[in-house]
Design brief:
- The protein has about 190 residues and is mainly alpha-helical.
- The chain has nine helices and no strands.
- α4 (about 55-80) packs antiparallel against α5, α4 (about 55-80) packs parallel to α7 and α5 runs antiparallel to α9.
Length: about 190
């Protein structure tokens, strides 16, 4: 990675962090590019070099989160060839590590003062992940719609995350991993 690339990465990181900090105070539509630049200590010209508008910055950051979520979700599947939920090792579950890594973002998504749009963006990301996974592993019976089943599963995962958020992420990642593994085992019985 060249010094130029490193500079771009650091600039974008500063812009992401500034946006995140501002989002914890107010919705995206009330945030100005000037505020983002001031907080990131970046001039407007630099901002416009990378993004046309603040929505582009948010979209890029959200995509990064979804990519990390995707990788975290797939981690246990890399360890086994045939997936048996009874055999899931809680130590291979990575989704809660992902949440912990992006805790600041999830605090914003689940806070009551942000538009539901963020929640639905997260739901869509998880829904897509699960739907693809369910289709690949052909896990459901013929009479169940993949869309409804994926929505059900996505909301179940989000439900766990919301409960963890409500407890201010007090429980350890290890505790959440064990809870999810136990819940999945119940579903199999």
């Amino acid at each position: 990675m060249s010094a130029n690339d490193l500079r771009v990465v650091k600039t974008k990181q500063a812009l992401h962090n500034a946006l995140l900090t501002l989002l914890s105070e107010k919705p995206l539509e009330n945030i100005t590019i000037a505020e983002i630049c001031r907080m990131a200590k970046v001039n407007r010209g630099t901002f416009y070099l990378h993004y046309e508008q603040k929505e582009g910055l948010f979209e890029e950051y959200f995509q990064e989160i979804m990519e990390d979520l995707n990788n975290s979700y797939e981690e246990p599947y890399r360890a086994v060839t045939t997936m048996d939920k009874n055999q899931i090792d809680p130590n291979t579950i990575r989704i809660f590590h992902h949440i912990e890594r992006f805790k600041m973002f999830y605090r914003i998504v689940f806070s009551r003062n942000v538009p539901l749009t963020y929640y639905y963006m997260l739901f869509d990301g998880i829904f897509t992940l699960l739907k693809r996974d369910i289709t690949i592993h052909n896990e459901i019976h013929d009479e169940i719609s993949i869309e409804y089943y994926s929505a059900y599963q996505a909301n179940a995962i989000i439900g766990l995350i919301i409960q963890w958020y409500r407890q201010d992420f007090e429980d350890s990642v290890d505790t959440l991993n064990k809870q999810l593994a136990a819940i999945l085992r119940i579903g199999e019985k």
